[in-house]
Amino acid sequence: MEKKIQNFKDSFNKEIVDFSSWNTLEGIRIRYLGRKGRIADLFKQLSALPPEKRRAPGKSLNELKDYIQSRISQESNRFAVKKEKKLPLDTSLSGIRQHTGKIHPLTKIEDEIKDIFKRMGFAVATGPEVETEYYNFDALNFPKDHPARDMQDTYYISDGVLLRTHTSPVQIRVMESQSPPVRVIIPGRVYRNEAISARSYCLFHQVEGLYVDKGVTFGNLKGTLEAFAQALFGEGVRLRFRPSYFPFTEPSAEVDISCILCQGRGCRVCKRTGWLEILGAGMVDPAVFLAVGYDPEAISGFAFGLGVDRIAMLKLGIDDIRLFFGNDLRFLEQF
Ligand code: PHE
């Protein structure tokens, strides 16, 4: 028995001297100290001896067990230190990806539009998205049963209270709160009861413009919009004014830019016309001035309302408006 114990100690010492990795150290530990290991085996053999013969070998066996335990823990400490010291900086490992937030593409374009008008001296105003029929329609000279109301069907909160269909009601709120001159832009979200498709959604964004002073002309409107379009789309862009109708402007126009994709030659996006509609505009109707208590004989003004979503789709090459509202990171991360 004593001889066996000595043999085990010798073989253990040999193994522990030239173990080379964490794995083999763990292997040694299991082989000697495991539940079915060599030490356990020796204890089993020991218990088979008659009691009076167990004492001496029992003592040596316990000593061997303690010895092996302490040697293994010694080696594992040493190995851990060695491993730490040798661990090289692996620059080929990919880093931990940081998900930082981004500005929404619509917000980006809206900011660009705002910056251009701010440079021209326009202030920024805002108004409520839940609006009264009075501000959304009546004060803007929409007669009660006029078909222009049908073109802007919306969601009613209660009788006379609705989700605004355009940013124009804020024209009224601004003029009610100050006297001329007025020079503001009004960015914001608007709502319409639309059949949802790649081109229209139940909510979208506008930037309204309003300039009221003595002697403001249609020429001022054209010059302002041209300067704006060139700042946003580039020097080469041209504007086209088509006669149109809005109850709150007279005369009124729908304004196109030359197609920024084909430079006006005609392509799929501009439906071969060479032009893209981006806004409605006109000279403020005298009835609107009367509604806010301005004197239409003393002052004049122009107003315009442009579609932010439409412009963002053109500038960023997006072919479905619904992508803006899907909250899909695969889309949003591209901008
Ligand atoms: N409010 C109009 C619309 O939403 C656009 C517009 C604004 C037209 C200002 C003229 C003047 O269609």
Describe the structure.
- The protein has twelve helices and ten strands.
- With 335 residues, it is an alpha+beta fold.
- It has two domains: 2-86; 105-332, Bira Bifunctional Protein, Domain 2 (BirA Bifunctional Protein, domain 2, 2-Layer Sandwich), CATH 3.30.930.
- The model has no long low-confidence stretch (mean pLDDT 91).
- The chain has helices spanning 2-17, 22-33, 38-48, 55-86, 105-119, 133-136, 147-150, 169-177, 218-233, 286-292, 308-316, 329-332, and strands at residues 123-124, 130-132, 156-158, 161-163, 182-191, 203-213, 239-246, 249-258, 275-284, 300-307.
- The structure holds phenylalanine.
What best-fitting shape do the alpha-carbon axes yield?
A: rod-shaped
What summary fits the major beta sheet? 7 strands, mixed
Output the CATH class name of the largest domain: Alpha Beta
Would you list the SSEs in sequence order as H and E? HHHHHEEHHEEHEEHEEEHEHH
Average residue pLDDT: 91
CATH topology of the largest domain: BirA Bifunctional Protein, domain 2
Assigned CATH architecture of the largest domain: 2-Layer Sandwich
Structural Rg: 41 Å
Low-pLDDT residue spans: none
Strand order of the largest sheet: 1-5-6-10-9-8-7
Report how far apart the termini are. Answer: 78 Å
Number of strand elements: 10
Question: Could you estimate the helical fraction of the residues in percent?
Answer: 40-55%
Structural class: alpha+beta
Topology:
Elements: H1 2-17, H2 22-33, H3 38-48, H4 55-86, H5 105-119, E1 123-124, E2 130-132, H6 133-136, H7 147-150, E3 156-158, E4 161-163, H8 169-177, E5 182-191, E6 203-213, H9 218-233, E7 239-246, E8 249-258, E9 275-284, H10 286-292, E10 300-307, H11 308-316, H12 329-332
Parallel strand pairs: 1-5
Antiparallel strand pairs: 2-4, 3-4, 5-6, 6-10, 7-8, 8-9, 9-10
The structure holds phenylalanine.
Phenylalanine binds next to strand 9 and strand 10.
